[in-house]
Amino acid sequence: MAETESRPTNFIRQIIDKDLEQGIHTAIQTRFPPEPNGYLHIGHAKSICLNFGVAADYQGQCNLRFDDTNPEKEDIDYVNAIMQDVDWLGFKWDGDVRYSSNYFDQLYGFAVELIEKGLAYVDFSSQEQMREMRGSLKAPGVNSPYRDTSVDENLALFTKMKNGEFKEGECLLRAKIDMASPFMCLRDPALYRVRYAHHHQTGDKWCIYPMYDFTHCISDAIEGITHSLCTLEFQDNRRLYDWVIDNISIPVQPRQYEFSRLNLEYTVLSKRKLIQLVEEQHVAGWDDPRMPTISGLRRRGYTPQSIREFCKRIGVTKMDNMVEMSMLEACLREELNTDANRAMAVLSPLKIVIENFPEDGQMLNAPNHPSDETRGSRELPFTRVLYIEADDFKEEANKKFKRLVLGKEVRLRNAYVIKAERVEKDEQGEISTVYCSYDPETLGKDPADGRKVKGVIHWVSAESGIPAEIRLYDRLFNVPNPAAEDDFTQCINPESYVIKHAIVEPSLKDIAVSQPIQFERTGYFCKDPDSQGDKLVFNRTVGLRDTWAKVNQS
Ligand code: ATP
Ligand code: MG
Predict the structure, then answer these.
(1) Is 550 a catalytic residue?
(2) Mind listing the pLDDT tens digit for each residue in 452-469?
(3) How many CB atoms are located within 10 Å of the residue 372 CB?
C-alpha cells in the first residue's frame, strides 16, 4: 500500500502558511526534542511525523535535539536508541544531532544577564517554605525574603552555585516575575538547581543544571526554530517561554504552538509507566512486541510506512482524545495485504496420513501472492504425512463448519482435495491421526464429476516442514484506559503473550527478520531476532481481520 499522497492540513500548517504569506518567516525550522530518559513510543511518532513532516513539506529543516538537563534520569543508551528509532521511521535530521547541553555555557550567560537585569535571584528557602509561598490556583503567592537580594550579591551567589559551594537542594536560581500571577508557572519559577551528577555529554563540568522551561526556549532560539511544536500540557508554560525570550538578548523569536497528545486504547504512553513495565519485568524489555514503543512495534513487525500512515490519519488538533488500537492495526493490515508474501504454517498441528498418496511425495508450486504474479512462486513439498490445524478437523459438524469433517472432503490450499476416512485416538481419547484419501484429479481444478468442495484449509508437510516457535501477542492491558486505574499493572492481560509450537513450510527457513509474511488464514508474522541457528521464532504482528470490534462489544 502506498501512503496516502495528499498533504495533511491542520491548524499548525495553517499558521505556517500565514507566516510565510505575511513574510514573518521565509524558511521553516522545527525540532523534535526528546528527553533521553526512555525509549520513544507511538506518541512520540506523532510528534516526529509532525515536526519532520512539516519541515519536509515546506522545504525546511528539522533538528533532532536531546533535551538533556536531567542527568540522573538520562542515559547514553537512550540517546542511541532514540536516534535509531527516528532514523528507522524514515526521517533525516538537519546536520548533527544537537543537545541542550551544547548550550550550557550560553544558558549560563543568559542566566547571568537576567540576574544583572534584576530579573533573577538565588533563593535559599527550603522546599517546604517555597511550596507554602507559592500559593494556589485560588490564592496568590507570597514574595520570598530572598527576592530583594542585590544584583551584586546574586551574581556572587550564582557564581558560588556554579563553583560547587552549595549542597544539592540548598538553593535555586529563580526568575523574578510575579508571585500573584494567575499562571503558576510565572510565580518566580526555578531556572537553575544544584546537582552533583555525571552528565552523559558534559561529564562533571557542571554541578548546576538549567530547568526545562529556561532551556527549551533558549535552545529553540539558538537553533533558529521558527515553530516550536509541543503538546498541550505546555500551554501555560508558553507564558514563561515568551518571558524568557523577551528578557534576554537574543535576536530571534521562536513561537510555541501546542497540539494534543496521542492516547491509544489498551496501552500506556507515558515514559514513567513504560519504565515501570520494564523495570518490574511485566514485559521482556523496551522492545517487547507488546510495548507501544517504536522498538517494540518494530520487533512486532510494524513497518515505518504503517506508523507514518497512522500518524497521518489521526491528524493534529487541539482536542484530547483516545484513538482505537484498530486504527493502527488497519494501517498495517492494508499495507501488508499487498506487500507480504504468503506462506503456510500450522500453529496447532494435527497429523493426517493420506493413505493412497505415493510414498515419495511430490513437489508442488505455489504463488507467493494470490493477486500479484510478479512476486513469483515457491516450491511446496507435498507428502503422505501432513499437518493441519487441530481446529480444522471435527468428527462431526454442521454445514457452517467449512473445514475437514469425518467422511467429508476439503481442499488443501495449493494442493489436492482430500477426504477424512477414519481417526485414530490416543489413550486419553484425543485424536492423534486422521487417515485420509486424496483425489489425484483435483490439483488446481475442481473435481471432474461436479462434486462441490467448499472449504480450503492450510497444511504443512510433516517430512519437510520445520518446527518454529510462534509468539502470539494480544493487547497488553484488558481495560481501554489503563492509565486511569489506581495500579495499571493490575490490569495487564495475562493472555497477551502465548507461545505455540508450530510447523512451518520449508521456504521460511531463511526469511529475513524484517520481511513481513502472511501465514495463510492465520495472520501476518515476522521472524524474531531470537531466531538462531536452527531455532526459528515468529511473532504475530497482526491478525487478518479486525477482532477488536467484536471483542469490545461482548
Ligand atoms: P512522557 O510524558 O511520557 O514523559 P515526554 O513528553 O516527557 O513524555 P519527551 O521526550 O519530552 O517525552 O517528548 C518529546 C516530544 O514528544 C515532546 O515534544 C512531547 O510533547 C512529544 N510527545 C510525547 N508524548 C507524546 C504523545 N503521546 N503524543 C504526541 N506527542 C508526544
Ligand atoms: Mg517532556
Answers:
(1) no
(2) 999 999 999 999 999 999
(3) 12
